[in-house]
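User: Let's play a game. I give you a shape written as tokens, and you guess the letters that built it. Ready? Here's round one.
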């Protein structure tokens, strides 16, 4: 079974391959999120915490910019109109389509991390399935091969083990047995994804 930390690093690495040459590294440097030397290592996910932080900043910034652009083009904020506007912008602008794709993949990777931390095995598998095609598309052969095998293994578990994973979360080993810390981590993670 692939470990959650290693899989998260692999996903950030694959996403870094998509973002290479897009101007993402320059934007982070100019915004003083990080230094020029550190930002290059984020494309390869050399340091997980720095990489995740940079992607969180990017995710929130893209969401804010997308919402502001919609509000400037429309008079009222309505989710259906926002969705229609987004689809129209994707059809009109390749740049918008690219950054909307980055926003989607960053959101999925953060959901993957949340699923792993909260021991939610069905969410973990479904998000991993949605992200696997990136490894094939960007020619990360090793990740593509082994993540596919991992998903198949997780889906074909015997029913008693699958229930153990889904109901008790016993597929993830907690660093601590203190229930307060586990609850606190779950609460912090849900707050971050809600905002």
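Assistant: Ready! My guess for every position:
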């Amino acid at each position: 079974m692939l470990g959650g930390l290693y899989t998260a690093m692999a996903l950030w690495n694959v996403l870094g391959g998509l973002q290479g040459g897009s101007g993402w590294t320059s934007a982070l440097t100019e915004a003083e999120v990080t230094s020029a030397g550190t930002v290059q290592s984020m494309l390869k996910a050399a340091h997980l915490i720095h990489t995740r932080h940079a992607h969180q900043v990017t995710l929130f910034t893209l969401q804010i910019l997308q919402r502001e652009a919609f509000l400037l083009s429309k008079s009222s904020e309505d989710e259906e109109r926002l969705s229609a506007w987004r689809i129209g912008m994707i059809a009109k602008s390749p740049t918008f389509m690219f950054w909307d794709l980055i926003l989607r993949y960053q959101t999925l990777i953060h959901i993957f991390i949340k699923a792993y931390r909260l021991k939610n095995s069905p969410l973990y598998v479904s998000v991993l399935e949605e992200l696997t095609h990136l490894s094939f598309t960007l020619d990360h052969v090793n990740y593509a091969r082994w993540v596919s095998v991992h998903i198949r293994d997780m889906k074909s578990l015997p029913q008693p083990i699958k229930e153990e994973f889904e109901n008790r979360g016993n597929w993830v080993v907690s660093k601590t047995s203190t229930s307060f810390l586990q609850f606190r981590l779950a609460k912090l993670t849900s707050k971050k994804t809600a905002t």
